Every structure is written in structure tokens, then in C-alpha cells.
Amino acid sequence: MNLPNMLEAKKRDKSEFCIYDYEEIKLDESLVGKKYYVRTYGCQMNEHDGERIKGVLTDEGMIETDNLDEADLIILNTCAIRENAHDKVFGFMGLIKKMKETRPNILMGICGCMAQEESVVKEIMSKYKYVDFIFGTHNLNKMIKVINERIRTGKQNIEVYSVTGDVVENIPEKRDSSISAWVDIILGCDKFCTYCIVPYTRGKQRSRKKEDIINEVLKLKDMGYKEITLLGQNVNAYGKDLYTDYNLANLLRDVSKTGIDRIRFVTSHPWDFTDEMIDAISECDNVMPYVHLPIQSGSNRILKLMGRRYTKEEYLELYNKIRNKIKNVSVTTDIIVGFPGETEEDFEETLDVVNTCKFDGAFTFVFSPRENTPAALLQDNTPIEVKNERLHRLNEIVNNYSNMRNQETVGTIQKCLVTGKSEKDSNKYAGYTENMKLVNIDSDEDITGKIVNVKIDEAKSFSLNGTYIKNI
Ligand code: 5AD
Ligand code: SF4
């Protein structure tokens, strides 16, 4: 048994991390040929981890099911970013407890970011004995060992490490899409923004080797993928831990040379965003003109308390450069309201910045105190009703600007990558413009997986409606 330790997680070991290949461990025979169910919460990195969990289980002879009732093994790949992510997981665990009353032999395990939290793991050990195993973000490659040991001993098995973290290459993957693929480029985070739990749950910032990334993209292209998204908590720090003269700008140019149709990247931290990177995005045709650039707050006082390392003015300077240099770019952001000590004036400064930037979209959140983070210890006198009211005011403004930006596309022809049927209307197809706007497309032929011309007929705050134009 190995428990997470948040204090250990905070220490940064400056020694080199290791890069090595996945080594197969054979799954206990009792599960071979049986069914598994994986549910993933949280960000794209977690989704990509979910694809690896499925890949390993499939390679070991298990079969995926999306019907919980027929699953023999259930894995919850969790998120810890805000309290409501926790609540969802604990709610789902209650359902599985009920299932176990009639099917006591099913196995249920927890992994992902919540598994890295000391208090969560302790709570599970004392109150949730029906959880069979827990493994952390650092030992996903050892998942089979953790499951086998649970089966062998018949006891709850907890194997979570609070370490720098390695880079494990070639873990089997079962990707959710055959059109668009995630590609990790940098794991972990060293920024330690005062509200954020990610540096504790995901470990030290560590880049994958450029050759490994480029080979992966070439392979995906050969397999017919049209789009790849380079992933990291902060992609703009790519290479800093591995190279002296190779960064995200170089990587974007090299990935661009693979000739894959579309390249995206998330998430960007304004601190590491260089002019060189802006040039690379604007000069490489297959690097898509879309930047997700979290601002978090428009008040310099709050930005300082958040440990964000930039001022409102610096953010705006970068924002304007991105808007001016990258043709047809769209920019989205993340904003936290109700950070401890945020006054009405601070909040209004955030509204001011939103009014200045007119973002294409924004993900907005009420501050959620996270275990052991510095912000969780700050005095916070703002009542939750006030925070919710601020969120509501902010969302109204944000949505108006999304709508305004979307309206500008009406009547234009946009190149869209079609990902499948529309979720809203099964008679339509869903696709994304180059600058990442969702379009519900009318078409009388199946255009899934293609990049097609679409005439935009109508715009709403969160999506566009358009018609497939066959011959241009
Ligand atoms: N409370 C609220 N929102 C948070 N985020 C990260 N940590 C917290 C927290 N403790 C938001 C940030 C980040 C996004 C992924 O989640 O805006 O950019
Ligand atoms: Fe992803 Fe962060 Fe949630 Fe972990 S805590 S799953 S890294 S969003």
C-alpha cells in the first residue's frame, strides 16, 4: 500500500526525470474476456489518460462496454480541479455501491487527480471499503499490477505515489475518435498558481522528446487522422526542462512539416507565450488560428494573489499581438470569480477586461478552495450568494460577446472538420471551423471525417448553423 502525500508532492525534485517504454504486465486470468467500463471526468489530459486505460485493458483481453450493468471492472478516472468534480465522483460511487449489493464480484477502482489527494484517499479507506483499488496519475502504467494484487489478496489495494513523475512512452491506447487525436507534449506543471491543485496531482513539468511527438503525429497521419491537439497544462513551457534551444515554436513548425491537416494546442499560460510562438502559429497553414489563453482575473491585486506572474496590462499586450498577428484567430479564456478577498472593484476590473477583449468564449468558475493550496488558507469573506451573482453577471457579458463574434461569421464560408453527427440534431453533422467554432451542418451526404466548405447561415452564443457547399 502506498498513500499520496500532499507535502511530498509540493517538493520539487530537481534531478532528471526518466523517459522509458511501457512494459506489459499480464492481467489476472479471471478478468480476461470480461467487460470493463471506464468513466472519465475533467480535462483533455484526463480524457487522453482514459484512452490509455482502455488501451491497456483491451490489449490484456478485456472488452469495453458502455453499459454499467454488464461491467465486471469499473474504473473512475477522476478530476480534482473543483469541489463539484469531487461531488460528481462521490455521487457515482454511491451508485456502484448499490450495484455491488447484487453483484458482489464486480471490481471498482479509482484513478486520476482525486486519487492523488491525501484526504480523498484517507476518506475512501475509512468510509468506502467497497472501492477495490486506487492508483495515481504517476503509475497508470502499473494499473494491471494494482488490479492483479487486489485480486490476489482480496484486500483494498492503494498504490499512489507523490513523485516528480516520469514520462512513459508507448502505453497502449484505444482512442475515442478516428478523426481527431490528443498528443501529450508536456506533463505536469511548475507554475503553482495559488488556487490550483494540478501541480500537486500531476507532478513536475516534464516534456516528451520532440522525436517521440513527431513520430506519434506521423503515425496518426498514416492512420488517417485529420487533426491532432498538442496537450499540456501549459504547452508554452514545452522544452524548457529538456532542451536549451528548442521550444513550442520549434515544435509547432516541425509538427507542421508532417503535413497533418490540422494542428491545435492547449492550454497556454500567458507567461511563456513568446513572439516566436505567435509567428509560428500565423505562418504555418496547418496550425489552427485558435488560442485558449486563461486570464483568471482582470485585477492586478488578485492576479498577484493568484501567483499568475503577469499584470492585466501585460495580458492585454499579448492578447492584442495575438489578435493582430494571427489572421482570423479566435481567443477564449478562463476566469475565476470570488477568489478570496475579491472586492466588487476587483470584479469590475475583470468585467472591464472582458469588455476590452470581447473573447470568443470564456469558461467561468466560482473559486473552489483546494486542499493544501495557498489560496485555500486565505481569508474569504465574500458570501457565496455574492459570488454566484458575480458569476451570473459575468456570464451574461461573456455570452453576449460570444454571440457577437459568432454573428460576424454569418454569410461567410468556413472550412469545417466534420467529427460526426450533431449531438443536438441527428439529421445534421457537427464540425469545427479552423478557429474552433462548433457548426451544426445540413448535408444530404455523409461528410464525417472530411474537411468541407460550409456556408454559415445562423449564429448563436455557443454554436453556428450552416450548410455544406459541395462544389467550390
Ligand atoms: N477554483 C475555481 N476554478 C479553478 N480553476 C483551477 N483551479 C480552480 C479553483 N481552485 C479553473 C481555472 C483553470 C481552469 C482549468 O479551471 O480557471 O484555468
Ligand atoms: Fe485535468 Fe486538472 Fe482535473 Fe486533473 S485536476 S483532471 S489535470 S482538469
Note down, in words, how this protein is organized.
With 472 residues, the protein is an alpha/beta fold. It has 4 domains: 145 residues, Response regulator (Rossmann fold, 3-Layer(aba) Sandwich); 112 residues, Transcription Regulator spoIIAA; 88 residues, 2-Layer Sandwich (Transcription Regulator spoIIAA), CATH 3.30.750; 57 residues, Nucleic acid-binding proteins (OB fold (Dihydrolipoamide Acetyltransferase, E2P)). Helices cover 33% and strands 22% of the residues. Strands 3-2-4-5-6-7 form a 6-stranded parallel sheet, sandwiched between helices. It has a 5-stranded mixed β-barrel with strand order 17-18-19-21-20. Strands 9-12-13 form a 3-stranded parallel sheet, with helices on both faces. Strand 18 and strand 19 form a beta hairpin. Helix 8 runs parallel beside helix 9 and helix 12 runs parallel beside helix 13. The structure holds 5'-deoxyadenosine and iron/sulfur cluster (SF4). The site of iron/sulfur cluster has 13 residues, from helix 2 and helix 6.
